[in-house]
């Protein structure tokens, strides 16, 4: 397999030519949950190039899977010839988009500025800067910070109606809670509306995209432009991706799946997609890959006729991991998955991949005197030393894919050079240990 970086993958991306226009494709892919005038949008996107934008606030040091939905929608529009603006929220990040439950903790200016730069790198990674419709990245702090409080209230605030602002979902939820809402967060929608107007005035931007939970903020901009410029502009709200059982997508035990490899390793990222439920996998392929409609339909047949083969999940995991981390990292994750179950050498894997695999498994830190039996107990693969002895005697215990019949063997003698060891009981039950150097 040829190793391709994310930049090379970017250059190879194409929209599906089987669709009559880009609007039809993004609707097919489930990327439109709510929008302004659909007929007008379809016509607009089929015509001459327009300028559009999506905003990303630095609420963390990395973007996550929910943000990837927006980046891929932006990329599809760019591939259709339209001009993207990626907005990083240097000012809105200082304020905080209201959450439905509680007030955000305000970050320092220094931390916000640092995170803005990290978010900018993510945005630039997924959109091309080449050609007449190359990406332009903007920071809303550039036009917000010079505004005085009087200018903000007179020139911007007067165009917003409090009764309309109160109806926004996040605002109404907070008003009905014990936490209430501060004037700071209440004003967030005005700032986002100001962003759209500034980009309309400076770049001719006529479309904003965002999650459907941001719809109130998106329409703040369309309404401000209508009032002050006398022009109709547009917004598209993508659906909030959820699993078929209704649980929130992209959360694992309360932790987001990050796009930054330092926060979510490529191995863990790959495993997340590989574990996609059959009921969700075709929808994920539509949203998160550039596979054609024909390719996705063929994988749908595979899910229906041979679900045990998990071909759709494997293709999904590879495509998205390659998109975010490059094909080399995706292939390393595949190799690691195979090696964990005895279909390759763990010793041939890069140390960071082995570390990532151990981190994703039930694991324990042990010392050089720990036996295999004690390691099995420490990781929860067996309940007792007696059970460990029986499992080893029956031939069901493996360390780094080597069968171990004597549970009293020191685990350190079987560990990889990095000090890691993968324990396996039977064919599929895995755990990891790290032998402490101390």
What is CATH's topology name of the domain at 31-240? Answer: Rossmann fold
**Counting H and I runs of at least 4 residues, what is the number of helices?**
21
Helix/strand/pairing category: alpha/beta
The CATH superfamily of the domain at 31-240 is HUPs
Radius of gyration: 25 Å
Mean pLDDT across all amino acids? 92
| Named CATH architecture of the domain at 31-240 | 3-Layer(aba) Sandwich
The CATH top-level class label of the domain at 31-240? Alpha Beta
Q: Which regions are unreliable across 5 or more consecutive residues at pLDDT < 50?
A: none
| Global morphology | elongated
Largest sheet: 6 strands, mixed
What is the total tally of β strands? 13
- The CA-CA distance between the termini, in Å, is 41 Å
Helix content: 40-55%
Task: Walk across the major sheet and give the strand order.
Answer: 1-6-5-2-3-4
Strand fraction band?
A: 5-15%
Binding site for L-tyrosine: 53, 188, 192
Domain Tyrosine--tRNA ligase SYY-like C-terminal: 355-429
Catalytic activity: tRNA(Tyr) + L-tyrosine + ATP = L-tyrosyl-tRNA(Tyr) + AMP + diphosphate + H(+)
Pfam families: SYY_C-terminal, tRNA-synt_1b
What does this structure look like?
- This protein is an alpha/beta fold and 438 residues long.
- It has 21 helices and 13 strands.
- It has helices at residues 6-12, 22-28, 38-46, 65-79, 92-95, 109-126, 141-144, 149-156, 162-165, 169-175, 183-186, 188-203, 215-229, 266-274, 278-288, 293-305, 311-325, 327-340, 351-360, 372-378, 385-393; strands at 34-35, 51-56, 83-88, 136-139, 205-211, 234-238, 251-252, 255-256, 363-366, 397-399, 402-403, 420-425, 429-435.
- A six-stranded mixed sheet has the order 1-6-5-2-3-4, sandwiched between helices.
- α14 (266-274) crosses α18 (327-340).
- The longest helix has 18 residues, at 109-126.
- The chain is elongated.
- The two termini are 41 Å apart.
- The mean pLDDT is 92.
- It comes from Frondihabitans cladoniiphilus.
- InterPro entries: aa-tRNA-synth_I_CS, aa-tRNA-synth_Ic, Rossmann-like_a/b/a_fold, S4_RNA-bd_sf, SYY-like_C, Tyr-tRNA-ligase, Tyr-tRNA-ligase_bac-type, Tyr-tRNA-ligase_bac_1.
- Belongs to the class-I aminoacyl-tRNA synthetase family. TyrS type 1 subfamily.
